[in-house]
Amino acid sequence: MEELNLRAPAKLNLHLEVLRKRDDGFHDISSLFTLIDLCDSLNFKKNKNDIKLVESTPIKNNIVYEAANLLKETYSIKQGVRIELIKSIPDQMGLGGGSSDAASTLIGLRKFWNLKITDHELIDIALKLGSDVPFFVYGKTAWAEGRGEILTEYSYKDRYFLLLFPQTKISTKFAFEEATINLNTKVTIENFKTNKARNSFEVWARKAYPEIDESFINLESIGYPRLSGTGSTIFVEFDNFTDAKLAQSKYPNLVLTKSLERSPLMQIIE
Q: Which residue, among 152, 46, 38, has the nearest Cα to 97 in the 3D structure?
């Protein structure tokens, strides 16, 4: 294969609860992940032996290079690759852009290097890169447990979302280290529909960052605002395009997106 082009979609946490800190330092969660049509782009081309990463927006310690190198070393791959990454998903915003790029790199290189690796093996490698990378390999709306790697398909009809990107950026590592959260509650996949969606980081984020709190207050005029991931993206969900566009007319700075039934990556997995 000479060249491969992929789209790496962002995610939203429609619900996120942190349940406990584990002995290995990670946290158990329960969360509902869905994909949206805001995507980064990755282009793979042949390179002699080395991995070369070209970025539209340079990111320190880019996980795309880490993913490619991990796959190359794990399976003793002799080939190289040139990867061009064009970013559209803002980083440190709770949208999983880096994790999606990493998953796309694993899936793309499995195809590009013609590796005989099962989806299960790929998910095991994905978990070494980050807790939500397996979800992006899985590629469809799912209820997540464990660190985020235990995934159950969840039926979820098409939705539209208005996204607000605050100036504030919040890294996942920082949020888990700094946030004081209630670890005693649990909404399950069985009772989610009868409970109000929540995010364990929302109270902390609103107290720590006045900009985020003010944004929540403003967006309450058009719906029920929620935080995605550890923040700082705030989103409002709509059942149809018409209602979403009407709300966007009141706040033109909001970005309109749509849920994806399946990841664009699924076309090369199947």
A: 38
